[in-house]
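Case study B.
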Amino acid sequence: MSQRNIKMILSYDGSRYHGWQRQKTGETIQQSLEERLRMILQEPVTIIASGRTDAGVHALGQVCHFRTSSRLAVDVIRNGLNALLPDDIFARDISEVEAEFHARYSAKGKLYEYRILNREDRDPFQRHHAWHIRTLLNTAEMANCLSMLAGTHDLSSFRSSGSGNTNPVRTIRRAEIGRGEAGLLRVMIEADGFLRHMVRNIVGTVVEAGLGRIDLSKFEAILVARDRRLAGLKAPPQGLFLVEVRY
Amino acid sequence: MSQRNIKMILSYDGSRYHGWQRQKTGETIQQSLEERLRMILQEPVTIIASGRTDAGVHALGQVCHFRTSSRLAVDVIRNGLNALLPDDIFARDISEVEAEFHARYSAKGKLYEYRILNREDRDPFQRHHAWHIRTLLNTAEMANCLSMLAGTHDLSSFRSSGSGNTNPVRTIRRAEIGRGEAGLLRVMIEADGFLRHMVRNIVGTVVEAGLGRIDLSKFEAILVARDRRLAGLKAPPQGLFLVEVRY
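Model:
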């Protein structure tokens, strides 16, 4: 009997997980999902995501797929899975897709949001969901840096090591900063693909500009240098949300 | 040397605490604060809050006071305390007040908010901060019930046992429901004082009306009966926020 290909759209709060990918120690999102699906489908499954999220990183719309011999209706799988999952992971949508669909290789682009709480007072309710920066940031300068990223670039300066030797050229379709309520800043970055820690490395460097430690020409010099050692520190994981994957 | 009277305004995420009040087992907000203040003030202190919050209940503006012989400036106390506190408790404001000020007895009123997530899908990011109800609630009917509460009433029907024999008459200044984004409902209740579990018992009963299990005349009958056994179940703690205490 041929296997069905199943696509899932997930939201999860990554706070208490050791990231997406299954590993020997520490609970992961992938493992949590695979264990429950195995119970429902009565067979082991391997889930492939659009990309791994790191420990502490969240998703509003992560996409993944798996293949199964089970004939269960997708609504039955969805309801069963959500009943078994812990309350920090939710399967928003489950559907059957053509055999060729691959969550990672079929992806045309992704949208990430990075939240910064920019005010004197910390907020107990956002402690796992934003990077708290007390010093008032120059958001106009940050917006200027971000707009420089739009287009196709070699983004080696914003790639963490350990990411293999994949092509470092990516096309950024959108890179902007918006102001929410009560000091919340949202950095939105949409691209055809992302290098390891790319959003967090970009945000860390753009924040340097917001603090006045580097100017626009220095930011441009970092971008064109293609040298990770020049960029700012990596922003912490808890502000990062994978919003959407586009196919 | 005379003791100073210090007032604090706090926000805290109550998720991982066994409520406000110091107790033998389990971490509490009071204990967490008293231990840090003792380090800063170099003397033991007893903190008195406007009222206790239960396990899992949150505060945006809890008020408390304590007396101390310390001469430290209030800004020094605030900065030291916030540096030592875990990130789910924050001292928003610390000020010196007249000797007569008492966080509980001087309070003229309080405002509570109760958050309900009323939609099919659960939200991993609100799991500790709203009551998830899947069935669509009739909010017009809920608003009608709430408006019936405005004024001065014997609220025994909404008081949990174990609250002693204090006078059950309270004046409710505001009782209404508002709609936020993405299925979030906010019940706001402001009164000169609250009986034990009063907001949660009211919300539990108003939700019964929203589900069509009781109508407006039944709600009125429950209110005037002054009998806790008639009211609905107590709403769970995680939706409740103490917003403000008025003096």
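The beta strands of chain A are 4-12, 48-49, 58-68, 89-97, 109-118, 131-133, 151-154, 169-179, 184-191, 240-246. The remaining cases will be described in the next quarterly update.
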